[in-house]
Each structure stands twice: as structure tokens, then as C-alpha cells.
Amino acid sequence: MERSTFVYDGDCAFCTKCAQFIEHRIPTGARVLPWQFADLDTLSLTEAECEEAVQWVGADGSRAAGPDAIARLLGDSGPLWRVAGAGLRFPPARAAAWPVYRWVARNRHRLPGGTAACSLPQEARERLYGPAGRPTADA
């Protein structure tokens, strides 16, 4: 793999807003893309893993999920962001990051940019909105 990849849930408005922030504010060489448009087989990821948490697949084949993936993304970025990434990897911060990450994941539909669709399981989102996130004819 040539570049590291950060994978997020493209059907979630909150996640998409966060990914846009990354793309516009965090200088990284990693690809930032929704899992719905990623080649999961090439990345050795499953839909279940991507529904569970954001994913990092390093150019070296290393993998991380959730706040560990965010720390890896930040570590692959500009100097100030690398400091933030190192801080997130610091054991006490890492221990606190996982419960916070899980809370955000459960409540992302309530956060700025979130929508009701963010709280639905992937299967329900696809049934209502189709695989590309647009409402289906019968929804």
C-alpha cells in the first residue's frame, strides 16, 4: 500500500463533518475516505469493523481503530497535530479516550452536524436511504 488510509462512516453526517475538518485543517498524507467507497478487501477491513469505529490502515500494514486510529492520523500530520496524537497515545489519555469515543459513537446523531440517520445501524440506513445515503423510492 502506498499511503496510509483513515476510514470513517460516510453515511453519518457528524462523521462526514469530522472528515471534512480533517481534510481542510489537518495536513496529513493519509487518504481520508468513507468506508462505503473504500476497497475494504484491499484494506483488510470488514463492514462490521468500520461500523464499530473509524479505522486506520498504515502504509506499513499497521492497523488501529477508534481513538487509536485518530492518534495514528494525528501522528502522521503536521508538528502540532503530532503532539496531539502523542498525547492521545499517552496511557492515561488513551484509557479515557475509549469511553469518550464510545459515548460519541452512541450519541453522534445528537452532536453538531449529526442527523437521525447517524443513530441507525448500517442495514437500516441502507434500507431507508440506499447505499449512497439518498432516500429510496419506498422510504
TrEMBL record:
Pfam families: DCC1-like. InterPro entries: DCC1-like. It comes from Micromonospora rubida. This is Thiol-disulfide oxidoreductase DCC family protein.
